[in-house]
Amino acid sequence: MNHPIRLLSLLSCALLALQHNAVANDKKRRPANHPRAAIAAPRQEPTPLLPDSPLHGWDYVIDKLRKDGFKEERLRHAYLDPRMPYLTLVPFSVHPRESSASYRHFTKSAEVQLARDFLTKNKKAFDEAEKRFHVSRFVVVSILLIESHFGRHTGQLLALHRLSRLASVADPANLKQNFHEQQLRDRTVTYEQVVQRAAYLEKTFYPEILSLFDIAEKAGVDVLDIRGSSAGAIGMPQFLPSAMIKFGIDGDSDHRLSLYEDADAIASTSNFLHFYGWKEPADRNAKRRVIMRYNKSEAYVEAVLGVAARLDGKLTASPRGKK
Question: Which residue ranges make up each domain of the chain?
Fold first, then answer.
């Protein structure tokens, strides 16, 4: 019988990225207005944001962690370790946008065939997930295709580094520099807009650092050994740490959770959608609202439903998604 995995068993999920995806990359684009895609990985390391900082620039996030009860030794191990890069400018937009063109290729025949092959290969896992969660297998497989190409592109970056960058956007030095650079591009951007957007990103990503430390502690692993995408997302469904804890399911009942294994990724994604209200049958707008909880991008939602419609004639693609 399938069952939610205990946090202690998250060890395999946290580390299998290193074992299963050593050559994986994180080149696929994410919706710009989805929090996990708020910041793209820099092509080269620019100048440290706070070059004179004895904490390698991580003063802002370390201060918050101290206030949340983290011991100094633990913080210094994580943030002053040679593997942990210095904090550099974290650029962000106050008006993130995403074009449907970013997802257009997922509805091409070759991509849809990959999804069909994955469905066939994992028929038993999809049967069990549908029976348990009552979520369309075609939507689940579409999400896994778009999120990571079924595990091919999950990311090999330090999850703590990527999450800490996003949680540091409201550092005064980062705010000042972002405002200056955005003003050069658009004089209508106000400092208040920059502050508000930074506050949203910090509110979204700072709790993920706490969840990541929690996973590492309970699993007995070094937090710097946990790898993920450019926004700290992990595994085939690209869950952030809090989602991994809340929705991770041991789909193949092998008493461990790995979001890099097909059955676990299928069950966990189904669990997420079920929790946020997916129902069968339901109208298109109701389904769109649930997928929006996965990724707050109109383009992403239309892509998921578009691929699903190609796989299942019962689902209707949007008029603008038809060719």
Answer: 3-321
